[in-house]
Amino acid sequence: RTTGDLVLSTADITKKFGGLVALADVSVRVAPASIVGLVGPNGAGKSTLFNVMSGYLRPTSGSVFIDGVEQTRRSGPQRRATMGVARTFQHPELFSDLTIREHLVLAKRVRSAPRRLWTDLLKVSGLRMSTATRDDTVDALLEDLSLTDDAERLAVGLPLGVARRVEVGRALITDPRVVLLDEPSSGLDESETRDLAQVLRDARIRHSVALVLVEHDVDLVLGLSDEVYVLDFGKLIAHGTPEEIRRDPAVRAAYLGD
Ligand code: ADP
Ligand code: MG
Fold it and tell me: What region holds the ABC transporter domain (predicted)?
């Protein structure tokens, strides 16, 4: 595959914070509609790589490509979002005075008119968004995420498993080509994690979207991903299919506790 066939890729990304090398020559490749896992211990550089890919951080050196076009210094997060790179955050930040449905409606509007973000937010907090304007894509997505029954609930005090699905929904409603998910299962119990895994599997198929999954839950990643990258102290120590990763002696030594 050439870079042009990839929805997202990095070449030799190095990121230093002062004297700390958070990422050292990291190259990853994300094919369309694939699920790519990124695992590694705390502090390995996973979130930093996400920030570099999504445009929140400029790397010290190396390149980021979206659909084969170099974006490293050309675009920030907002622009990359309009190019189809969506992300979720480790700690979902939902608006306590909006319903689940309103979160999706708002996210959809923001994608199509980024500059109106704040206008929209003001409108929402002032008047409330009209939920009478039914939107088929929003309804379908609520259904995909098993959120239909909770759609009119306010986002305040939602169980974390539900909040995480809203986060995923906010990313998917923008019709992205790739979603970067930072620790989507953290804090979830076993059954919430299972539900989330199913939502992600379905999302990849129904929305033909690529997913990049940062996780400390290695079993979840190995179970979901087509390919897995393993980071340790900012360096890639392994890359392969889940089976290859399970067998990899370096990974077992460094990470799987052998
Ligand atoms: P992970 O997500 O794999 O746990 P991070 O990417 O958050 O790791 O962090 C990688 C390393 O970079 C850590 O040592 C962390 O302390 C450091 N780091 C991350 N962000 C910053 C920052 N903004 N300033 C300084 N150091 C940072
Ligand atoms: Mg992190």
Answer: 8-258
CATH number at residue 80: 3.40.50.300
How far apart are the CA of 92 and the centre of ligand 2, in A? 14
83 falls within a domain: yes
Select from 13, 15, 39, 48 the residue to mutate for testing ligand 1; criterion: most ligand atoms less than 8 Å from CB.
Answer: 48
Burial (Cβ within 10 Å: 0-12, 13-18, ≥19) of residue 185: buried
Who wins on pLDDT, 214 or 113?
A: 214
Q: Which of 84, 81, 92 is nearest to 67 (CA)?
A: 84
Instruction: Give the predicted TM-score (pTM) of the model.
Output: 0.89
Contact 62, 94 (CB under 8 A): no
**CB under 6 Å to ligand 1: residues?**
17, 20, 22, 40, 42-48
pLDDT in tens, 189-227: 999 999 999 999 999 999 999 999 998 888 899 999 999
In a domain, 130, yes or no: no
- Flag whether 103 is in a domain: no
Query: Which atom belonging to ligand 1 lies closest to the Cα atom of 49?
Result: 6
In a domain, 144, yes or no: no
Number of domains in the chain: 1
Enumerate the β-bridge partners of residue 210: 178
ipTM higher than the 0.95 cut? yes
